[in-house]
Structure formats: C-alpha cells, structure tokens
Amino acid sequence: MTATTVHEVRRNSPAAQRRRRNDRWMRLVVVVLIALAIIATLVPIYFVVIAAVNPTGSLTTSNLLPRTFTLDNFAQLFINPNVPFGLWFLNSLKISLIVTAIVTLVVFMSAYAFSRMRFRGREGVLMTIVLLQVFPNILAMVAIFLLVSQMGSLTPALGLNSHLTIIFIYVGGALGGNIWLLKGYMDSVPREIDESATIDGASHWIIFSRLIFPLVRPMLAVVAVLTFSGAYSEILVMQVLVRDREAFTLPLGLYTMSQSEFLTDFGVFSAGAFVAALPPLILFYISQKWLISGLTQGAVKS
Amino acid sequence: MPRLSTATARTTSTKPWLRFVLLPALLAFDVVGAIWVWSTFGQGLWLVGSLLILVLAGINVAVIAKGATAFRWMLPTLVFMLVFTLAPIVYTGFIALTNYNGNHLLTQQQAYSSFERQTHVPDGTPAYAWAAYEAEGGGLALYLIPQLGEEAVVPDDLLGEEPTDGESAQPDPEATPSPTATETEPAEPTPTDPEADEPATGDLSDVFATAGGEVREATAGTDIFGAPDANGFPATIDGYTRLDVVQAVTRISELSATSFGAEPTVYRVISGSRAAAIENVYDIDRDAGTITDRRDGTVYSADPTGYFIAPNGDRLTPAYQTVIGIDNFVQLFGNEKIRGPFLEILLWTLIFAVVVVVLQFALGLLYAVVINSRFVNPVAARVVRAVLLLPYVIPAYLMILVWAALFNQQTGLITAVLDTLFGLDPSWINDGNGARLAMLVVGLWLGFPYFLLINTGALQAVPGELLEAAEVDGAGVFVRFQRVVLPLLLRSIAPLIVLAAAFNFNNFLLAYLLFGGNPPKLGAQVPAGETDLLISFTYKLSFDFGNSDYALAAAVTVLIFLALTPIVVSQLRYYNSWRGED
C-alpha cells in the first residue's frame, strides 16, 4: 500500500501517536463487530446441526450443548417410509441438473447473439429481457397455474404433476437475468479475436464453440451455479403444480415435513435440512472465486 | 457493421443436402403441430392455441428464412420466455378482468356441455328388466323387457353427472344449491306431460338397444334373437355373447355409465335389475344463451355475472367464467372488508421492502469496510467472509423454516430465551408488530451477506488514488467515506439495490414460510395476515384452503406490476447507460 509510506514519514509526530491510540480502539471495535456478526450468523445454523445429532430432536435451552451424539435422525431420512427423502433428493437433483444444462446452453446462445450480432429488434428484445427481470415469474403464479392446467388437458406431459412442466417453467424464469450477465461478460471479450476468425472463414458455430466458449467459461460457471441453486431451492411453483408426494422435490418435501411433524420430529427435519444444504454449499465454495467476481461484476464494471 | 454481414453470408450458405433432410422433417413437424393447434382450439383453449401457433411459426422461420441467423440463435430463449414468462403476465391482466374463481371454473361452452350431459328419468317412466350382451368386437347391448305397472325408481348413487374436466375436482366451497339440477331424484309430476300419469301400459314390447347405437323392438325367438330363457331373455343373440349375472355385476359401473340407444330414445341401467328410458334435463339454446328445464319449463338465461339465472332469481350450477370488467378492482378499493386489509398489506410490503434493503445495504457496507480494514489480516478476512456468506449459500427456505421453529410461541428457542432473560411473554410473536419485527430480523439475516459480497467487490473498484488525494487534502475518515467512497459506491451498485428491493417486495418465501402471513387480520373478508406481503396474499387468495379467487388474486398481481413500475423505469435508465457501450 502506498498509504503506509505516508504514515512512516510522520511516525513520531503527535498526530501519529494519537493515531496509534485510536488504532487500538478501532481494533477492539472491529473485533467486537466481527464477533457479533459471526455469532448472529452461526446461531441458527448451530441449532440445526445440534438438533440433527441430538437423540431427542428437540430444541430446548437445556440441550444447547450436546451431551449425546447420534446419527439416528439421518438414518430415519432413508428408512422411514413416510418420508421419501431419498426420492425427493433424486427429484431435486434431476430437475436442477436438467434445468442447469438447458439454461446454460440457451443463455450462451442468446448472449452470443446479443453480443456478436447486430439485427433488427435487438434493442427491443434486450430491453424486454431487462424489464422482465423485475417481475419474477412467481408473480404470475395464478396465470401459470391456469395455463398449465389448460395445457395439461390436451398434453398431460405439459400439465400438472409433471416434472417436464416444472423444468420448462424454471428455465423460462432463469433466462433473463443470466443472459444479461453473460452478455455483459462477453462484451468485454475483445471482438478482434472473432473478427479475425470470421475473415478466415470460420462459421458462427466455430467461433461460438472454439473461441468464445473457453474465454467465457468462468461466467458460464457462474450462470450454472446460480441456476442450479435457484432450481434446487424453488418451492412455490412446485407446491402449486405438483400434488403427488412422490414427485416432490426437497424444498416442498422438507416444508411439508416441517409443517406436519414439527414438534415430534424436528431432529429428522434438521437432519434433512443439513443434507439438503450440502450440494449448494459445496458448489458455492468450489466456484466461490468466479461467483463473487460475477456477482459484483455489475458493480465493478461501471 | 460490415464484418458481421460477411459472417451472416457464411452461415446461410450451409451444406445443400441439409435442406433435403430439414424440409421434409419440418413439413411432418408442421402437420403434427397443426393437428395439435386444431384440437387445442377445438377445446376452446385459445391462449394455449395462440402460443402454439407463435412457437410453430418461430420454428418455421428459423428453419426457412435466410437472413435469420440471430433469430435462430435466440429462438430457444424467445420460446421459453414467451410461453413461461411473458404469456403468464399478459394472461394475468386478462384474468383480472374476469370472474375466474372456484365457482366459475368452466367456460360458458363447457358449462353448456355439462348441462347437456345431465339426464333424468322422467316421472312415470316404465321400468324394464335388463340383460346385458357384449358384441364380438366389443361394445355392450341391452335386451329390455317391460315390467307391467312398475315405474322406474332411481336409486341415489346412480346416473350421476359424468365428470367434466380435471378442473371440476376443485373444491366448490359456496356452490349455490341448484333448484333442479339433481337428476337423481325423480322430478315432480308435471301437468304439461300427459303421458306421465299413465305409466307402463300393456302394449310395450321388448327392446334391444346397443351402446350409443340403434334401438329396436324385439321378440325372443325371432330374427337374430334366440329362444327365451326362464326370465324371458333370449339365451343367445347372433353376434353377441350374453353376460352372466356375475359378469354383469362386476361390470355394473361400466354398464350404468353407458347410454344405450341414441337420441331421442336412450336407455340407462338404473339398478342391478332395472333399466329405464332417460331424457335430458335441459333444452339448450346456445345462440340465445338460454337453458330450459324440461321438467317445469323454467328458462334460465346467461347473465353477465357468469350465472344462468331464472326469472325468479334461481341460479344453476355450474356457473361459468366471463369477462366482468373492472369489478375486481372495484372490490379491492370499494369493499370495506377487502380494502382495509389490502391497503394495510400494501403498506407493509412497501415498508418491508425499503427498510430491509436499507438495513441490508448499511450492514453489508459496514462489514465490507470493517473486514477490508487494515486491522484484519487478509487470511482472517477471507475466513470471516466465508463464514458470513453462509446465509447466502444455504438455501433460504431451509433457514426460514429453522427461524420459524426458533420463533415458535410454545417451543421456540428465541421466544423461550427472551422469556427467561427479560420476562417477555412469548405471545409477542402472535402480535402484529412483534411478528413484523421478527420478519425484518430474518430478512436482514438472509440478505445481509449478499450486500457484504457486492459491497466488498465495489469497494475494491474504488480507485486508491482518489482516497489518497482526499487524505492528503486533510479529509478525515468519515468525510472521505461520505464524500468519496459512498457516492462512487452508490453509483455503481444502485441498480443492484433497486433489484434487491424488488426482490424483497416479492419475498414470498419469507412471508409464507416464516409465519404463513399470520397472525391473521381480524374482520377481513379475505385471507389476510399481519405479516403477509402482497405476493403471499395473492397466493392465499388463489391456493389456500378452498379459496380459489383467481380473478381477485390476478387483480392484486396487476397492482403489484403497477407498484413495480418505478423500478422498471430505474432499470430502463440503467439499461440506457449500459447501452452506450455497444
């Protein structure tokens, strides 16, 4: 830091001494603030973990410090036939992964078109996409429900209780923001790269797959992670469109668990919550570096 | 941009053989698509049909049109966003102008069909004994022998209305009792029907009727009919196999759901041993929009409110959906018991969205600065950040459910601890303000890490030279922060703050999973709670426990769209500032 050199020059002035005293206070304030934030963040998380490994599975002040440890609650998740947790988990993974794959490809294609092609209506479509971002598709839930019931009366695969419908709706909701994100990133890739390739006779497909793809991979990863997390924890669309318990995903399953068996089985719910939180946690900390730069990109850019 | 026109030229001159594969495939695809569209409109699903046409047209243009390279690349996006984002928004606007709710699920045409299917056994109809036969190629038939002097009596559980579409499975909480539509009871004798008083005269002959087909007089032992058995039924009929008693009993539900013969003479099985001629309850004139009850001659006319109404005010069910204009909005603002809760929820939604985002931003900024400061070494800073990000990384619904448990009045840890430490009675959580405060706390907890994240990023982008210059000029820490850092920061992340406010305005998960919107508002005519946001309110209006007031919910949604307009405008300005780079 260049700022420190300024400090050194004035090390022994009275101002510097005052500053050192201030520093001691500031350091204390900083430590206290950080400690407070960490406690506030961890307390609810701590309780889930404790409840998950506590045999009584209840949350009372008396057992805040665990004296006994058990994995029974986790076993319950996979043994208890009333809680098809494994099935929910698979449903969640299936839906989220398919949605992520479709969204990543479709977003990539659109962002490429917006970033590298000039065509009539480009402005209008881009602007529409930006504006639709303000209205999450759960806002139009009533319309989606009625539309899906109508589609289902002719084509059951696109009707209620169908994972295909869910996947399509998630894809539709995830496109806008991500196209915007990826297009911005692509714009920062110098066009000279693909211009020279175009002159050499490369088709769009070659430029798209061989040149642009490797360069925007970090942002694609961000798009994938955000899409996965979104689909993995969506609850409203699922609750409105799917009635069949076997077809539930984790969020809806855990929600029904927390509603019906709250008082007796909080331990099992906590174990389920613990397991359910793992995939996004792992994914996030693997992709942390790209993700943070991606999320703050809007800020850094201007 | 000339360079791109060369690129376009390249891609459109693709391999010629591709056309020979693509075009026939497209043709086949279009034929299937056209049939699909046709049947969609046939069912009266105009919205689905129109969307299908647009999608098919898009695919055709993408395949055929020469200069449509960019369109081809964007087609998947356009299709998904059209069908699952744009169309629902537009449709919401339409639903808000209708009376679509649990009582008005069917279209008018569907309602007509449902009345058409209602049949009854007129009073004094002669009863027949029946035997069932099955044709060799499948298809049922009845041989009927009139029972002298016996009137057909219909037991309660037979001849019910056939189920309509899946939607009719919806609960129908306040269905108007229909005066005449239950055809399971024999109707009152009507003086206008001269035959009714003289049932079962002796001159009736045996009848043979096939499912949905012919009806003819028959005599056992003649024509195709074999010799009569002890009960008078032909033992055999050419081309048919007789069902024995056991078979007939096991297939009784199929038999009783089948109409034998065709209009105007239709027979139905009405019990294990009896059948009778049935007739439609209603005469329907779709053009005039009237339904006439044949039993008493009452004329029901289609009313703008979506009911068929008799001159004396009686209504028929099912009612149907129709456009009623701005009535839903009038209800929202005019009906005291709806307006009050609605405006309160609107106010709380605005307060919540603004307050929670301001707090999230302020706290996020504070910690971004604190963790970035020279008092924290870089390794520690990284660890602290990773920990503080946890609420952002763990799916929100999980932690909201946990918070809900912590705030539970009977078993919640937080309520218990506050009770022990400060003697605070746990019932505070069932008070409107207490619950709202708790909701703000959870909202802050959930959203603070996001702002920590983006503020950290934005701070790193503030040029160090600017800060140094300010310091050399003698500016103190706070002045530097207020005059230099904050304006720069706000300029760059303002759009994200606005989006976060929009997100919290619609924070359904928090409002619905934390307290379910409870405690409920007293005296409200709609399912409204003290912690409801508009979005959870619309959800409860449409999907909670037998409320299915889709139209009112759609009207509220339209108002949400309007309320978000300022955000749209600000995003537009943001967009315009970005556009400069192209």
Automatic annotation (TrEMBL), chain A:
Bilayer-crossing regions: 28-53, 95-114, 126-148, 160-182, 219-242, 262-286
GO-annotated cellular components: plasma membrane
Gene Ontology BP term (one): maltodextrin transmembrane transport
Molecular-function GO term, any one: ABC-type maltose transporter activity
Membrane topology: Multi-pass membrane protein
Record-annotated ABC transmembrane type-1 domain positions: 89-287
Main location: membrane
Keyword Transmembrane: yes
Subcellular location: Cell membrane
Keyword check for Transmembrane: yes
Matching Pfam families: BPD_transp_1 (PF00528)
Keywords: Cell membrane, Membrane, Sugar transport, Transmembrane, Transmembrane helix, Transport
Superkingdom field: Bacteria
Family: Belongs to the binding-protein-dependent transport system permease family. MalFG subfamily.
Protein name, as recorded: Cyclodextrin transporter permease
